[in-house]
Amino acid sequence: GATIYYTLNGETPTTDSDVYTQAITINEETVIKAIAVKEGMDDSDVVTLSYSIQDGEVRIHDIQGVTHYSPYNGQNVNDIEGIITHVASASEFYMQDLQPDDDERTSEGILVYKSAHGRKVGDVVEVTGEVKEFYRGSSQGTDLSITEIAASVITHESSNNEIPAPIVINKDRILPTEKIDSDNFGQFNPNNDGIDFYESIEGMFIEIEKPKVVAPVYSGELVVVPYQNETNTNAGGVKLTAEDGNPERMHIVTNSSNLVAKTGDYFNESIKGIVGYSNSNYKILLSGALPAIQEGTTDQEITKIEKVDSKLTIATYNIENFAANTEADKVQKIAQSIITNLKSPDIIGLTEVQDDNGATDNGVTSADQTAQVLINKIVELGGPTYAYTDVAPINNQDGGQPGGNIRPGFLYNPERVSLSNGTKGTATDAVVYQDGKLNFNPGVIDPTNEAFNASRKPLVAQFEFQGESVIVIANHFNSKSGDQPLFGSNQPPVLSSEVQRNKIAAVVNGFVSNVKSENPNANIVVVGDFNDFEFSNPLNILKGNELTNMIDHVPFEKRYTYSYQGNSQVLDHILVSNNLLSTTEVDIPHLNSSLMEQHGRASDHDPVLIQTELKRAKTYDKVYNLVGFKTKKLTVAKANSLIDMDVTSVISDAIYVKNT
Prior knowledge:
alpha+beta, 9 helices, elongated
């Protein structure tokens, strides 16, 4: 019973405006504004409706446009013709234009939404409805949209037609292989930018010839590259670098819950599908059956480092939410990998060690039983009897799975190394280095610093090895959760989680610097899961002038510890104080990141291992104690230069420095 008042000139309608009584004829671009008014009630909000006159026939490529967002977004389109190439569900199908234009930048495919549409592949239809930019399964704030027509009317033209031939990737269209986006969406350039390339074929039927698998299957999705594209890891993956985001990675949605494939597997036949987008990535919706997967040669690796009695081995290993109640199969795999693949390191910095009852949230924070389960299994399988130490966190203060209380911890072989004498710290005690030792051993670094809010506190322990002292710091920096996606709506992506890692890295580097100022010749090893890459800001801050990242000394093709969305990347690192660099070697035995559980995978991270020689530090300390003054009076540069001299030169130079 309300009265509708409207305007056609853009002005806000009032009760003095025209009254709506019959259909309004539109002959030119027009903006209608309208309100509903009824006595005794509040006036409605103003409704604005924009109309433009369709200039000739509109086809799918016009709707898609040379852009990521349709120029017709929010507008109604009439009688859009296409042939159905893929039925995604009872309410969605993809169709493709039978009269493509000559512009490869404009897609000829589009998603159509209509509940209970009842259509099948090969139907030619005309669709009338509203063009929308649709966000599937993720945030509108960070993801790209997919262009769809929300259909009001679908008119059937014919059935059982042959669908267009697929676009053959790297033949009909060349896939960019380096830049996801090079210009902050400044220019739509499918020839150069991967994000524009996929938009230019959004909704279209494509073919990937004999693809190569570059990551283990995750949630039924395969990540592949066409056979023409090179892989660059020893397992057959593609390595993420500061310059290369690998836009050639293509995610195949198979909808299979039991698909098994690993990095390095491949196909002898093509995969065909439709280009869609969901959950931060362009996805290829499989069309027809998946061809047979061919077995590649990727297998679990054993470290190349051979143990030497006079050298110390240290590993870092993320054992993925390991608790006392972890399934027996995983316990066996972790224990066996420590013995066989890592050759029983002297010290292991563990991350994601959960408390004794795992994810049960009952206030328990001790992980002694958790560690004992692993220790017992290592002994049972023929390995050494490790000892364990950590500092238990305050309940639910360090992030991770609620109730799990993950923390870093140390396994060490007491037949090879010993924990230096000292009092164990608590979760709130700050460890410092004075007079050659830690005030708490083990202890945590600056635990009340806001940098560590809801994140793990670095664990520091001082060990003795054949008369030498070494300080090891185990870390688990805050995760990358919250960072924007590589194929997202903001280019470059905003790495919001990096802010906290920068702060944590600065605190840990500050601790190392303090130790070095007290003792320039101190042996320091920094290990852990840093949740960032070797070229990232946090790792550069952590290194500072005091540390060297041994990951930089791993051959490029082996430089990865984790696989995420098909990118092989480094999250786990071992850094050493510069005085150890010349006597340290490093290896990454890949036994998890490229494989699935069916292949023996024990965790989602690969461990990293170093072997180092501490004898130079021993000679240096003895000489300087002999001549009777503290090494901290020397500059770091002077101290480091003296390490490389013979003992006689060291003594004479030391006496000279003392006397002058």
